Amino acid sequence: MRVLGVDPGLTRCGLGVVEGLPGRRLRMVAVGVVRTPVGDEPQERLLSVQTEIDQWLADWQPDAVAVERVFAKANIRGIMGTAQASAIPMLAAARLGLQLGLHTPSEIKAAVTGNGRADKAQVTHMVTRILQLADPPRPADAADALALAICHVWRAGTDGRPGEGSTTNRIHEAERLARSAAPNRLAELHSQHRSAARAATARASARPVPTRRNV
């Protein structure tokens, strides 16, 4: 089982791929962080995150995607950017037919450290031990992404069957189906609209015309 963990954010979005099975040794496949300039427009920053996540999906071909569940905090402006960024991997997983796991921070910490209130240093330390890494993953966003992937393997697993075709093939198939389905759906909507218009005209024609009386 291969899982892409995503620690969402606009300034820094952590990405980590872990491979393994529950009860067995896990292996880190890849880890990194997507950074976007604070001064850029939000849509440009989101596009940068999306482009990088799509590339990771194509390169590493995970069986599932795990994303940290976003909770409202005091910094509403900051949480808005995090929520927007979290939608990108969720949509990508749906588009590719991959299993999606949403895990709370306390679930992730408990799965990795045994303590739902562990701090970032403890999470990084345990991720390093679990994956038997020579050096701790930096920055903390990268370690959090790996922790997400570990949590998903241990807590949720996957309902999909690995090896049923590459992620790239699934992207192409999804795009092909979308292109072929769109015209058919549009034609169906037009047909429904015409039928409704004809029915409305028929009802109006059958309705008796009121007679005006002169007083």
TrEMBL record:
It comes from the Bacteria. Its cofactor is Mg(2+). Mg(2+) 1 binds at D7, D141. Residues 197-215 have a biased composition (Low complexity). It is an enzyme of class 3 (hydrolase). Mg(2+) 2 binds at E68. The active site is at D7, E68, D141. InterPro entries: RNaseH-like_sf, RNaseH_sf, X-over_junc_endoDNase_Mg_BS, X-over_junc_endoDNase_RuvC. Residues 189-215 are annotated as: Disordered. Belongs to the RuvC family. The keyword DNA repair applies. Homodimer which binds Holliday junction (HJ) DNA. The HJ becomes 2-fold symmetrical on binding to RuvC with unstacked arms; it has a different conformation from HJ DNA in complex with RuvA. In the full resolvosome a probable DNA-RuvA(4)-RuvB(12)-RuvC(2) complex forms which resolves the HJ. It is found in: Cytoplasm. It catalyses: Endonucleolytic cleavage at a junction such as a reciprocal single-stranded crossover between two homologous DNA duplexes (Holliday junction). This is Crossover junction endodeoxyribonuclease RuvC. The RuvA-RuvB-RuvC complex processes Holliday junction (HJ) DNA during genetic recombination and DNA repair. Endonuclease that resolves HJ intermediates. Cleaves cruciform DNA by making single-stranded nicks across the HJ at symmetrical positions within the homologous arms, yielding a 5'-phosphate and a 3'-hydroxyl group; requires a central core of homology in the junction. The consensus cleavage sequence is 5'-(A/T)TT(C/G)-3'. Cleavage occurs on the 3'-side of the TT dinucleotide at the point of strand exchange. Its EC number is 3.1.21.10. Binds 2 Mg(2+) ion per subunit. SUPFAM superfamilies: Ribonuclease H-like (SSF53098). Keywords: Cytoplasm, DNA damage, DNA recombination, DNA repair, DNA-binding, Endonuclease, Hydrolase, Magnesium, Metal-binding, Nuclease. CDD domains: RuvC. It comes from Ornithinimicrobium kibberense.
